[in-house]
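Good day; I would like, with your permission, to put a structural problem before you. What I wish to show you is a protein chain and, alongside it, a tokenised description of its three-dimensional fold. Thank you for your consideration; the sequence and its tokens are set out here:
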Amino acid sequence: MSTMQVQTPGLQTTVQDLGRNGFGPAGVSPSGAADPISLRLGNRLVGNDENVAGLEMMLLGGTFAFPEGAILALAGSDFGAMLDDVRVDVGTSVEARPGQTLRLGPTSSGARCYLCVQGGIAVTPFLGSASTHVLSGLGGFEGRALRKGDVLHIESETKAFRKRTIAPSALEQLSSRKVLRVTPGPQVDWFSESSLRSFYAGPYRVGEQSNRMGLRLEGAAITQRGTGQMITEGVSLGAIQVPAGGSPIILFVEQQTTGGYPKIANVIAADLHRVGQLRPRDEIRLEEVTFDAARSLLIEQENMLASRELILE
């Protein structure tokens, strides 16, 4: 089993897979990659199953040494990575020779970059997942973000290196969008027509206090029709709650599993990966689509991800 040594950890680098779904009734949110499509693509580039654990870096990447070498790929946002003194492009697999070091800097595009290595990061699963739940300190590598001096183990693999690249057309289709598509929330009728017009007119700015639990949106305040209060109920990934102050919050991968604020809308599944690439101060708009359209967009996206033309060799 080979290793990866953390020389500098970056801002908040954690071990993530595609999350632990199905434990909401027990109060455990899914966690997992904030941009799951980038993790899936990175794993495919190195010949892994899509759910194999990799590293998620946010805004500022780390420095990692590979004493025994490794086959690796970066996916998601561009953090200006260098393997020793050679540029590493996002969306292309590379082979690190024994003793080489991968250095990543600040992002030049979105919020998160994923480092996938052939074989995957070896950690003890929690509730069937390798993902780190930062707020509860569970899963991943000791339940926390990486620190200088950590040594991660890489599962052994015997596959030969094959250079793979994500097709440019796919990268364009999956690229960041400043419009998030949403479906109406279960309490949408709690809000006046003028509030709904303001909500969809935008723009909203992603607040500085946003994190993996939720993204706070700054912009036009949304008000309810009356002063009624709702009973706490289950909430879904991507739900947009409107608390008393009127500033919407997009619930994200480490969300609470129940809530008592009305939900005006829900980000569609096909756009959740784009939420994971939003940075503080980014501006977005919201666009309502029908449930049928949301389903069609997800099917279209999954068909594209399953296409043989997605990865070029």
